[in-house]
Each structure stands twice: as C-alpha cells, then as structure tokens.
Amino acid sequence: MIYADNAATTKPSKAVIEAMLPYFEEVYGNPSSLHTPGQKAAEALQLAREKIAACLGASPKEITFTSGGSEADNQALRSAAYLGKRNGKTHILSTAFEHHAVLHTLKALEKEGFTVELLPVSPEGLVTAEQVETAIREDTCLVSVMFAQNEIGTIQPIGEIGEVCHRHGVLFHTDAVQAAGHIAIDVRDLNVDLLSLSAHKFHGPKGVGALYARSGIRLSSIIEGGAQERGKRAGTENLPAIVGMAKALEDATAHLEENAQKVTALRERLIEGLSKIPHSALNGDRYARVPGTVNFCFEGIEGESLLLLLDMAGIAASSGSACTSGSLDPSHVLLAIGRPHEVAHGSLRLSLSEENTDEDVDTILKEVPRVVEYLRSMSPVWKDLVAGKRKFIL
Ligand SMILES: *Cc1c(COP(=O)(O)O)cnc(C)c1O
Questions:
Q1: pLDDT score for 319
Q2: Where are the beta strands (DSSP E) in 70-208?
Q3: By Cβ atoms counted within 10 A, which residue in 9, 106, 144, 240 is the most buried?
Q4: Atom from ligand 1 closest to the CA of residue 101
Q5: What's 223's DSSP letter?
Q6: Which residue ranges in the chain fall short of pLDDT 70?
Q7: How far apart, in whole angstroms, are the C-alpha atoms of residue 39 and residue 223?
Q8: How far is the CA of 198 from the centre of ligand 1 (A)?
Q9: Which pLDDT value is given to residue 323?
Q10: Same domain as 178, residue 81
Q11: Closest Cα partner for 109 from 212, 217, 193, 220?
Q12: How far is CA 326 from CA 21, 28, 301, in A?
C-alpha cells in the first residue's frame, strides 16, 4: 500500500516507538506521586517539556500538554476569549478555512456572546496581514489564523500577521498542527501568543498534543480536576505519548531541511504530473505550501469514488473534504477558495512524507489519470460536459 494521507495522520517512527516503550514497562509512575517511581516520571515529563519548548523557541513553562490538536485549539481560543471578555473585548477574528476544531469552538463562543468574524481567503488559499489589520477593531481580543491549511497545504504569512496583532495589542493564536515538524517555527520571531500542535501529524503517537501559551497568558481549563499542568489541564499525564511526541518533534526538527527538500521534490513531480489531466486544477497557491500536501479538483467526478478506486489500486489518499463525516456537503475549504460545489466534490488530497519514494509518485501518476478517466467514462455529468450541455468550469 502506498500511504499518501500524511495530513490525516503519519506513521509513528521506529525511534519514537522505542523511545516510548520504557515509559510503559519501566517508568510507569504517576508524575504527581512523591515517591521515586513518580519522581522519575516527573523528570521525564519535564525533559519532554524542555525538548518541545526548545523546538519552538519557547520556554518549558509555556508548554501545556493536551490530548491533541483539537484540545489545544479549544483551550487556546477559550482562554483568549475569556481574557478578552474581562476587558470588555468580545470580537474574534479568524478565517473561513480553519480546521473544525477552531471553527466549531468559535461557534460555541458565539453562543456565549462573542462576535466572530471569519476573513475570506483568496482563490490561492491565502489570507494577508493587511486583511487582518483592516478587520481588527477596538474590541478585538483574539486573532486565530492557521499556520498551514490541512486540506490544501497553503502556508499563511504567520510572522506578518503576528506583527500586526502585536502592534495592536491583540492576542494571536495559530493552529500549527500541519506546520509543526514540517516547517521551522520560532514563536518569538513570529510574534505568536498561542500555538497548537499535535504529535500524530509528525510521526508521533495519536492522542497527544501541546499548547504553547506565551508567558503571562492565563489559560482557562477545559478539563477540570487535579492540579496537573500547573492547574490548567487536569488528568494524569499520558507520559509514554508525551515522551514520544518530544522524540518525534526533536527528530523532525533535526531533519527539517533535508526532509523538506526530499518531500518537496516528490510533491513537485506530483503536481506536474497531475496537472496534465484535462479539466483539473491544483487547489491552493503553487508554491506557498507545506512540502507534502497536494490537492486537486477533477471536473466531472466524485471524490469518494476516486478514493475507493485508488484504495483498490493500493493508494491511500483523501478527498480532503468533510464527506468522511457522513455529510454530503463539499469541503468548506474548497468553497472558501471559491471552488463551486460541483467542482469541490471532485477533490483529491495526496499528502506525502519523507517515507514516500519516487516509485510511489510513479505509481500515483499512473493510477490517478487511469481512475479519473474511468470514472469520467461512466459519469453522466462528464457526458453532458463533453456534449456541450454543460459548461466546463476547469
Ligand atoms: C489534525 C488537525 C487538528 C486536530 O488534531 P488532533 O490531534 O487530531 O485532535 C487540528 N488542526 C489541524 C490543522 C489538523 O490538521
């Protein structure tokens, strides 16, 4: 099987699994216990916190462990919103193509009385610092813009947006789940106040993530209970997973450049090859993108059928759309960049990692055009398009 769905999750590396094992078998104490086994666990927890902080240019006290990217997003947004409310500021700025962990939290905050404004994104899948600056109001308490888009892979100008927010005294959160471990991040350089990451998107284990919160920002608890994580996130820490996340981020950071170069070369071949399919289009800016993510629309077909046939051909990909959730709505991301419904339905996301090879790309470039052609040959919509009864969009 060719695994080309690394934006959904990555394979945990051998080194990560090996780093985790002692924390199941030997160091199994509770980090909150005062005895020696507990203190050994507490030391490992602290070391993991230091490693993750170092990879982000943060200090260890600024790192809170969570159950993943979704929880980190929830906690970041709620914390900033509640801090704002205390100063009478209840306006929140974000974008139309955020991950649902952000969008749905913002919906919940709207019900609590906050005003949420979602900035439109360009057809290239980008937002600008100027857009943010124009939209910031007197009562804006938070700006949340994702670092790298999970469906189309585009990278947002986080440093420029951070600078604008900093200048206006507005807290800035970025969902960096698709960026961490893939592109260099320095929270101070970027003027980021809150940043979410998730281990399973960079060859770490699932169910663990981290929230960076700049020193001085009071986090609100999402999970109430014990005093773990300085009272901001109750629950016994998932130490094996946290150790695995630290190892994964350290490895990813150490090999960032070479991995990016390798994966970008594979991605470029994919984009060039897939672009040859008639009536297709790359989604998102050609170059401002994470190394591994490619998303295409093919007119006249359904993304789901394409996925199933690719799966049968030994290729694991994604439609990048919300259809997996059982809804038939096309991806909010593709609609946000202006793709009409009928085109947005025919999307394919291929997301590569450094584990993929040139041969993988060869196979994908052989199979995707074949399957697209096959599906079109059976598609009534395609027949209408070819017969001129409908107008081609792409
Ligand atoms: C995967 C993902 C999340 C959710 O992370 P989990 O650890 O799976 O909860 C949030 N935001 C983005 C951009 C993602 O890609």
A1: 87
A2: 91-95, 115-119, 140-144, 171-175, 194-198
A3: 144
A4: 10
A5: S
A6: 321-328
A7: 24
A8: 6
A9: 46
A10: yes
A11: 220
A12: 36, 39, 18
What pLDDT is stored for residue 326 in this prediction?
Answer: 53
Which residue bears the tokens 């949420």? 116
Q: How many residues does the chain have?
A: 394
User: Radius of gyration over alpha carbons of the chain, in Å?
Assistant: 22
- Mutational test site, ligand 1, from 102, 178, 200, 249, max ligand atoms within 8 Å of CB: 178
Q: Which domain holds residue 210?
A: 14-254
Does residue 175 line the site of ligand 1, with CB under 6 A?
yes
What span, in angstroms and rounded, lies between the C-alpha atoms of 100 and 79? 18
Domain count along the chain: 2
- Centroid of ligand 1 to alpha carbon of 83 (angstroms): 24
| pLDDT score of 47 | 98
Residue 258 CA to residue 189 CA, distance in Å, equals: 22
Active-site amino acid positions: 323
Q: Which of 77, 173, 177 to mutate to test the pocket of ligand 1 (most atoms within 8 A of CB)?
A: 177
Same domain for 313 and 167, yes or no, is: no
In terms of DSSP H, where are the helices of 96-215? 100-111, 129-135, 158-168
What tokens does 34 get? 């005062």
Q: Which has the closest alpha carbon to 280: 233, 231, 343?
A: 343
> Are residues 25 and 150 located together in one domain of the fold?
yes
**pLDDT tens by residue, 299-330:** 999 999 999 999 999 999 998 755 444 556 78
Q: pLDDT digits over 214-231, tens only?
A: 999 999 999 999 999 999
- Give Cβ neighbours of residue 330 (< 8 Å, ≥ 6 apart): 321, 322, 323, 339, 341, 344, 345, 347
CA distances from 370 to 78, 277, 306, 351, 365 (A): 47, 10, 10, 20, 9
- The predicted pLDDT at position 320 comes to 72
Is the CB of residue 10 below 6 angstroms from any atom belonging to ligand 1?
no
Cα–Cα distance between 362 and 352 in angstroms, integer?
Answer: 13
Among 254, 274, 302, identify where a domain stops.
Answer: 254
Rounded to two decimals, what is the model's pTM?
A: 0.97
Residue nearest atom 3 in ligand 1 by C-alpha distance: 69
- Count CB-CB contacts under 10 A for residue 98: 25
Q: Name the CA dihedral angle for 39, 43, 49, 52, rounded to a multiple of 10 degrees.
A: -150
Residue 2: inside a domain: no
